[in-house]
Amino acid sequence: PICGWPDFHAPTVDALGEIAWDAQRFLARDARNVAVFHCKAGRARTCTAVTALRLRTGECADVDAAVADF
């Protein structure tokens, strides 16, 4: 995977942090920017990456709130 991890494996903390940091920097560059997350298998990796971003940006205070939309 280019910016992720293989199916049925947990990401490293470093990889997950890097994905969230990259997305946050991209979104901060221009209010018109949109981050899109997609995984081939469905939703587990997408949910993990989006949850990390939501926690990093402070959009959600805890994991339960960050995954509530999934």
Average the pLDDT over all residues and give the rounded result: 86
User: Which percent range describes the beta-strand content?
Assistant: under 5%
Q: Count the beta strands.
A: 0
Q: Which bin fits the share of residues in helices?
A: 40-55%
Regions with little confidence, pLDDT below 50 for 5+ residues? none
Distance between the termini: 23 Å
Instruction: Please give the count of helices.
Output: 3
* Strand/helix succession: HHH
Rg over C-alpha atoms, rounded to the nearest angstrom: 12 Å
Structural class: mainly alpha
Most strands sheet: none
* Coarse morphology: globular
Walkthrough of the structure:
By secondary structure, this protein is mostly helical. Helices cover 51% and strands 0% of the residues. The protein has 3 helices and no strands. The protein has helices at residues 13-29, 44-57, 63-67. It is globular and about 35 Å long.
